[in-house]
């Protein structure tokens, strides 16, 4: 009984170009549910796995020219990521059977881990969905918190643009920015997501980037409807993709005065369009550039010489550098979640078998909200 | 006698592509050497004019999409820049005949200016060449000072790369970095400039970027010469462009361990190569991107998604935001100059007629050191 079957998700081989489901293989092995006493290891049962864009970079062949980037997965071995787990057996004095934790685990039903501070966290607040520790209360939450408050240096009244805005991180950045009194616009890749931004997350404006032909103009867009002397409607300025609008409304949208803060999740063409629309002393928090991760030849960014004139700061960051602030983050965010002032949308894939499609789907924008995989709902 | 001829340099028309001498026209007008009392204006005789890369951007047609960038010159009017001047007549209570100042003036023999704090400065230290106020003791000096000490956050022992390193700003950044105990490498566009970097400015290493086919490898370059058991020389690693080297020497050059700080003066391909070679938590001070200013289609930068993994900060800055610190800068730099611990190389063009060629020459790297134009050496 101590040995059970352990389903796993392996990387078939290093990936070039767009990742496919077939790059990941479901397999089974056996696992002993006991770990040696005093081994400092812990055997966990995985409940939820987090699908995150950075994982694409770990599928890449290691690049000797860029040793500082993400550590590659090993072909033929289970991939790893962040997840929520329950301790089954422990050889570590700080963990005991039944403890819940989140942190680095394999993509498998059971993992043997060696808990590492700031990489594995015990879960104390259990009056929220446990899956939130893959998102709102986990790494994406910390990323939004650190990226917005530390990297963007926001001030009340500033204008904020968020790309991939309905995603695991973006939906929180938008809500944080509204709480701070900023004007916030988000971009996403479907009508459903744009509606979420406007109606659920409280963004002031949102657009579907796939429907925009000129992102520079879209970001600058301002539409004013004035009553003409003959009571005809006159559109003063508009971008190509504005839909017919109600009579007698006054619209003023996106960033006619420019962008103070850009929370960058996508890279490529969008980054270029944003730089053109940035205001002087603007800040760009480079959280990630998902549009580039699957390209064999990444897109160029052409407008960088503007950052000198505009005094723009572009800063890459990784929330793992800030996990000493994790408890500070929980103290900040938990009351808002409890009071319903922060909301969170998840996209839940059921079962480890669905994990490859869920992960690959991220890169096509198939997820609506935080993508995660349920490995087991069985807390026993 | 109060009216004299005033030679001027006009912009013929907005420039696209590479600027040519013929885009600038020498002309003459008359100027009254007296200004009305109480007018708050000052008539100055220009002694030295500063040729600066940003001036190319002022030759461009104004771009309504980027109103925050440099203000364009007006075709048919004298261009303007920074210069060193002597007051001939003053309608301003703070200025009197004979005062020396540096700041914004027209490209002409005489200018009527309205002095503006932090844009016009009286010259108090006159025991240096007055031309230094176009460079070492003027805007380029402040740019190097602010860019290196404020934007780059340097620490002793860090590795620093400077492009356009023999130019008005770069030669100072290299010397500041050495004073701080950093390891410093510079790039420039000729053997003469590379020799200056090594032998005059004290750079630890330098290369001619025009002779390098693979800038990524060049920046990473490490050459080790070991004595083989049979006393044969064995080259462990080298980049393509290494010249034959002396026997029995041990070479270790450029950045085998990566770059902590990049002082960015050129942009384009060099920026891309640097990003690939940056160390985690590296900083890039974007002082300017001269390689891009004359291109109708700027080069793309393709490696930006690495800045997230490497936690790189890229920050554009303009020394004019820091001119409240100008006296602090002088207090810092003047003793070093006096003691010969900081040196400065100028490239001097004689006469206003030579000004168009001098300015345009910047964009072809013809200048060796700070490019300036002598309008008059007559201090009377």
From TrEMBL, chains A, B:
Keywords: Oxidoreductase
Span of domain Oxidoreductase N-terminal: 7-113
Species the sequence originates in: Camelina sativa
Record-annotated Alcohol dehydrogenase-like C-terminal domain positions: 168-333
SUPFAM superfamilies reported for this sequence: GroES-like (SSF50129), NAD(P)-binding Rossmann-fold domains (SSF51735)
The encoding gene: LOC104735734
InterPro entries membership: ADH-like_C, ADH_N_2, GroES-like_sf, MDR_fam, NAD(P)-bd_dom_sf
Domain of life of the source: Eukaryota
Name of this protein: NADP-dependent alkenal double bond reductase P1-like
């Amino acid at each position: 009984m101590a040995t059970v079957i352990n389903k796993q998700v392996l990387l078939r081989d290093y990936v070039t170009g767009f990742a496919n489901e077939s790059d990941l293989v479901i397999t089974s092995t056996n696992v002993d549910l006991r770990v040696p006493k005093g081994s400092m290891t812990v055997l966990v049962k995985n409940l939820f796995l987090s699908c995150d864009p950075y994982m694409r970079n770990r599928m890449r062949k290691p690049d000797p020219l860029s040793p500082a980037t993400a550590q590659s997965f090993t072909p033929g071995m289970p991939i790893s990521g962040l997840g929520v787990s329950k301790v089954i057996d422990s050889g570590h004095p700080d963990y005991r059977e039944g403890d819940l934790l989140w942190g680095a685990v394999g993509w498998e039903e059971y993992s043997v881990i060696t808990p590492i501070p700031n990489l594995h966290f015990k879960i104390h607040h259990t009056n929220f969905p446990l899956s939130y520790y893959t998102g709102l209360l986990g790494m994406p939450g910390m990323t939004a918190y650190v990226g917005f408050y530390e990297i963007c240096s926001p001030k009340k009244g500033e204008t904020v643009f968020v790309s991939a805005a309905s995603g695991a991180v973006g939906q929180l950045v938008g809500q944080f920015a509204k709480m701070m009194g900023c004007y916030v616009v988000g971009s996403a890749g479907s009508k459903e997501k744009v509606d979420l931004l406007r109606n659920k997350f409280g963004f002031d404006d949102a657009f579907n980037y796939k429907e925009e032909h000129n992102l520079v103009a879209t970001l600058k867009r301002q539409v004013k409807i004035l009553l003409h002397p003959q009571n005809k409607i006159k559109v003063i300025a508009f971008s190509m993709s504005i839909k017919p609008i109600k009579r007698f409304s006054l619209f003023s949208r996106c960033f006619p005065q420019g962008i103070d803060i850009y929370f960058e999740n996508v890279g490529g063409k969008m980054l270029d369009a944003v730089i053109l629309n940035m205001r002087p002393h603007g800040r760009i928090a480079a959280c990630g550039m998902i549009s580039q991760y699957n390209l064999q030849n990444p897109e160029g960014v052409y407008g960088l010489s503007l950052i000198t004139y505009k005094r723009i700061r572009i800063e890459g960051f990784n929330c793992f550098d800030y996990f000493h602030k994790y408890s500070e983050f929980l103290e900040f965010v938990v009351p808002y979640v409890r009071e319903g002032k922060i909301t969170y949308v998840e996209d839940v894939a059921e079962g480890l078998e669905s994990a490859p499609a869920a992960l690959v789907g991220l890169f096509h924008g198939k997820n609506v909200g935080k993508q995660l995989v349920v490995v087991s709902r069985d807390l026993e």
